[in-house]
Amino acid sequence: MILILSFTIIFAILVFRQRLKVRRLPPGPTPLPVIGNIPQLVYQSWRHKGIVPAFDYFRKKYGNVFTLWLGPFPHISIADYETNHEVFVKNGNHYKNKVLPPIFEHFCDGFGLLFANGEIWAEMRRFTMLTFRNMGVGRNIMEERLLNEIDKRCAELNNTEVDGKIIVKHNEFFELITGSFINSILVGQRFEDHNMEEFYHMRKLINGIIEVFTIFDTTTAVWILKYFFPQRYAKSKNGWNGISDYVGQAAEKRLEDIKSGKYILDEENPKDFIDAFFIKMEKENRNGGHPAYTMKSLKYTLLDLWTAGHDTTAATLTSGFNQLVNNPEVKEKCREELMKITNNGSRPLSLNDRSQTLYLNATIAEIQRHASILNVNSWKTCDGPTTVNGYQLDSGDIITAQVSALHVNDDIFKDADKFNPDRFLENQKLFHQLIPFGIGKRSCAGENLARTNLYLMFGNLLLRYDVQPHKKLPSTTEQFPFTSSKVPDHSSKLEFVRI
Ligand code: HEM
User: Fold this and answer.
1) More confident of the two residues 341 and 13
2) Ligand 1 proximal residues by C-beta, below 6 Å
3) Domain range 1-94+374-434, CATH architecture
4) Closest residue to atom 7 of ligand 1, CA basis
5) pLDDT tens figures, 135-150
6) For residues 109 and 94, is the Cβ–Cβ distance under 8 A?
7) pLDDT tens digit sequence for 252-310
8) Would the N or C end of the chain have less CB density within 10 A of its end CB?
9) Domain boundaries, the chain
10) Ligand 1, atom 6: nearest CA belongs to which residue?
11) How would DSSP label each residue in 106-127?
């Protein structure tokens, strides 16, 4: 009897507190106690065939800022540019901390960039962005290495030409080219015949992580996963440990070589991320050291950069070429522009051409809008009482720029379902309203690298090849609309015909 009474009282308090909170927060469907809006979210995702269309349904019904209770906690999504800018840029200092999925927090131990908060994360983020900027501006390491990578991989492709056609499993081609480029920027080694096995090993580990990157795995307590779902737990563990061991070994070997005098660090010209880190670490050590500049921190940062940078870029390239072969008139207009600018393809496209390739820029923007790689963006917590659109938020309230919902927002992108690069030429403002790399203090730390990759890859491949579908057109619809991240169709192949 006492048990039933206590349970009823606790339940009544929870319901009362939830009702009070609902009144203060941005609108949304009425939540149930404990399970919140999960039934409505599941139903609308089923009805509209995906999480993003379900978000769009809630946005249309409740406005650009809406609340969904995921279990007992309210989660606020913002699906327009102005409010996101106001919250995450102008007021961004309040939203630096991510809600860390327990399993990743457990593996990363407070280090790295993706699943960390606090001073070590902030310092590593500053350092990473500065290092990438230095590699892009002035010294142009990024451009040189990527153009070299494109040359070498295209030469390999050309060797497989039969009857004037090269049949390409394009997602695998983009995974290899992106993996090799990122590896060369981070640890100074591209993938060639002698170390190709290492690339396949990394791919296998990343695929394992992607398989368990579901809403279930990212919200469940570690002990539950460990004891009741040991295979899922092992998959995450093997993935994170395997990748961090691979990049960590490269860093340790470099350190040994530096100590033994076999390798000399050039302070003015670091050749990759590891070099830049050791140069900074040496400087910090002279001043008593900094907890962000340790081998452990380097290992986890490299791990995060590899995993965050690889699939996102490869998926955008795959999704983009799927769109281009479905929209041949766009492909032709890009090529016409590229030919004009490079004097009929007599030189490769360079980053310096960006101001002249207006149509290519618009096409890449439209590709990124459709590719919009995360169905659900990572959640941030607010660090103190603040307001969003006039609503009062408390410390710990959960919020995000819901990028996927913003990119299908018909009020911003008219006929959002259509693939139409011209929309960006007709209204330049749309370039700012597009936020494929997120916004604010937790936006993508590799944006610079990714933009370099997308521009040079799309531009130079379209200059070299006429790309056609092979046997069937790839689909441009989302393959796994119920998972956290998007996966483009890679069931088909493409034909590359040399120009
Ligand atoms: C087309 C390619 C890419 C896209 C579309 C993309 C997009 C994103 C998005 C949407 C986020 C989350 C933003 C948020 O939480 O609000 C993110 C975070 C991140 N990205 Fe990227 N990304 C790409 C490539 C890269 C590359 C090449 C790297 C590095 C090599 C990278 C490193 C990171 C890191 C470290 C974070 C976490 C930043 C933090 O929490 O402080 N990304 N990215």
Assistant:
1) 341
2) 113-114, 125, 182, 304-305, 308-309, 312-313, 316, 373-374, 377-378, 401, 403, 436-438, 442-446, 449-450, 454
3) 2-Layer Sandwich (3.30)
4) 437
5) 886 678 899 999 999 9
6) no
7) 999 999 999 999 999 989 999 999 999 999 999 988 888 999 999 999 999 999 999 99
8) N
9) 1-94+374-434
10) 437
11) HHHTT-SSTT--HHHHHHHHHH
